[in-house]
C-alpha cells in the first residue's frame, strides 16, 4: 500500500532524527531556572550540556538495537485507525515477526496473539524453515546478492543516523521519572547551519520534538516528533502535511539492549490529487533472540516437530 509506505518512510527518518546524540551535535544549555517544586515531575534544568560520553553511548545503543532486530523475533500488534482521535481501531493485525537472514518473515496470528489456524500456522513455519535453510547456505550468487542488500540497508541506516549529528540542536529541559528510572529530556530543533546532502537528510529541517535518554544507561527511552512544514516526497508524488506526528517508546528488553515497545504515527497528506491519512499504533512484545539462520533452524524444526506430534496425538484420540 503506497500510503503506508510513504508514512513508514517518513516515520523511519523522523525517528532517526530524534535518536542521535553525539559530540558533533550542537548541544545548547538552557538558562538556569528556579528549583522545581517538591513533587514536580521535572527537576530543575541544568546549565551544563550533556557530556560526549552520554552522546556516544546513546548513538551506540541505537545502532545496537537496529542491528539486534535482525536477530530477535517479536510479536507486533498493529492497530489501524481512520482518524487519530478515534478510540477503537478500525482493524487490528497481529504478527509473529521472525528474522530470516536475508529478510523478515511475518506470520499472521489471531488478535489474542495465538495462531487462529494450527494447520496454516504450521505451513507458515515450514516456509520460514525453508527460507532459513536457504539463507544458511553459502556460495550461491543469489544468496550473496541478498545479503549484500541487507548489509547496504544497515549501512545506509547507520549513515543516516550519523548525518543527524549536525542536523539538530538539543536543549536540555530537565529530568523526569519513568517507573524506577530517571530520564533526561531534551528539546530537539533543526540546526540552521546544517546543509543537507540528500533528499532524506533534507527532511530533518522540517522535524522537531523531544527526546528522552535514560540517565543511568545513556539509552534512548522515548522520542516524540512533529512535522513543522509540508514535506514533498517526490518519489511517490506525494506530500505529508504539517502537523503530522510520530512517537516511540523504548525499554530494556535484554541486558544492555533497548528496543521499541510502542510506536505511533499520525500522518495526513496527499498523493496525486487524493488525500490520505495513516494512523497506526504498533505494540511490540515477546522479544526473543533467535539468532542467525543457522542458529534459528533447530529452534523452528523443534517447534514444527512439536506441532506435528500434538496433531498426531489428537488424531489418535
Number of continuous helical runs: 6
Report the C-alpha radius of gyration, rounded: 22 Å
Give helix and strand order, one letter per element, not per position.
HEHEEEHHEEHEEEEEEEH
Provide the residue-averaged pLDDT. Answer: 82
The helicity comes to 25-40%
The secondary-structure class comes to alpha+beta
From the N-terminal CA to the C-terminal CA, the straight-line distance is: 45 Å
Largest sheet: 13 strands, mixed
Structural account:
It is a single chain. The protein has 317 residues and is of the alpha+beta class. It is built from six helices and 13 strands. Strands 1, 2, 3, 4, 5, 6, 7, 8, 9, 10, 11, 12 and 13 form a 13-stranded mixed β-sheet that branches.
Tags for this entry?
single chain, alpha+beta, 13-stranded mixed beta sheet, 6 helices
What's this model, at a glance?
With 317 residues, this protein is of the alpha+beta class.
Describe the secondary structure blueprint for this structure.
Blueprint: H1 2-19, E1 26-28, H2 52-68, E2 72-81, E3 91-99, E4 104-109, H3 118-136, H4 141-163, E5 168-178, E6 181-190, H5 199-202, E7 207-214, E8 220-227, E9 231-233, E10 238-240, E11 245-254, E12 257-271, E13 274-289, H6 293-316
Parallel strand pairs: 1-5
Antiparallel strand pairs: 2-3, 2-13, 3-4, 5-6, 6-7, 7-8, 8-11, 9-10, 10-12, 11-12, 12-13
Helix pairs in contact: 2-4, 3-6
Amino acid at each position: 500500500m503506497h500510503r503506508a509506505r510513504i508514512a513508514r518512510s517518513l516515520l523511519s527518518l523522523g525517528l532517526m532524527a530524534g535518536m542521535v546524540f553525539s559530540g558533533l551535535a550542537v548541544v545548547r544549555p538552557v538558562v538556569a531556572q528556579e528549583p522545581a517544586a517538591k513533587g514536580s515531575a521535572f527537576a530543575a534544568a541544568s546549565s551544563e550540556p550533556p557530556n560526549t560520553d552520554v552522546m556516544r553511548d546513546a548513538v551506540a545503543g541505537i545502532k545496537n538495537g537496529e542491528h539486534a532486530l535482525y536477530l530477535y523475533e517479536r510479536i507486533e500488534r498493529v492497530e489501524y485507525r481512520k482518524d487519530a482521535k478515534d478510540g477503537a481501531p478500525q482493524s487490528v493485525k497481529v504478527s509473529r515477526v521472525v528474522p530470516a537472514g536475508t529478510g523478515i518473515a511475518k506470520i499472521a496470528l489471531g488478535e489474542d496473539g495465538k495462531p487462529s489456524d494450527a494447520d496454516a500456522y504450521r505451513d507458515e513455519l515450514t516456509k520460514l524453515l525453508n527460507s532459513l535453510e536457504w539463507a544458511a547456505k553459502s556460495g550461491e550468487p543469489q544468496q550473496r546478492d541478498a545479503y549484500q542488500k541487507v548489509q547496504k540497508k544497515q549501512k545506509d541506516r547507520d549513515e543516516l543516523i550519523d548525518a543527524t549529528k549536525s542536523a539538530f540542536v538539543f536543549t536540555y529541559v530537565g529530568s523526569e521519572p519513568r517507573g524506577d528510572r530517571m530520564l533526561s529530556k531534551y528539546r530537539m530543533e533543526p540546526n540552521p547551519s546544517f546543509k543537507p546532502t540528500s533528499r532524506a537528510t533534507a527532511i530533518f529541517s522540517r522535524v522537531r520534538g523531544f527526546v528522552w535518554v535514560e540517565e543511568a544507561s545513556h539509552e534512548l527511552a522515548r522520542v516524540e516528533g512533529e512535522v513543522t512544514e509540508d514535506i514533498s516526497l517526490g518519489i511517490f508524488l506525494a506530500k505529508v502535511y504539517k502537523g503530522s506526528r510520530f512517537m516511540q517508546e523504548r525499554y530494556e528488553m535484554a541486558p544492555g539492549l533497548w528496543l521499541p515497545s510502542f510506536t505511533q504515527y499520525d500522518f495526513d497528506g496527499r498523493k496525486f490529487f487524493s488525500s490520505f491519512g495513516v494512523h497506526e499504533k504498533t505494540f511490540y512484545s515477546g522479544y526473543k533472540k533467535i539468532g542467525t539462520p543457522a542458529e534459528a533452524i533447530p529452534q523452528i524444526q523443534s517447534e514444527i516437530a512439536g506441532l506435528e506430534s500434538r496433531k498426531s496425538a489428537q488424531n489418535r484420540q
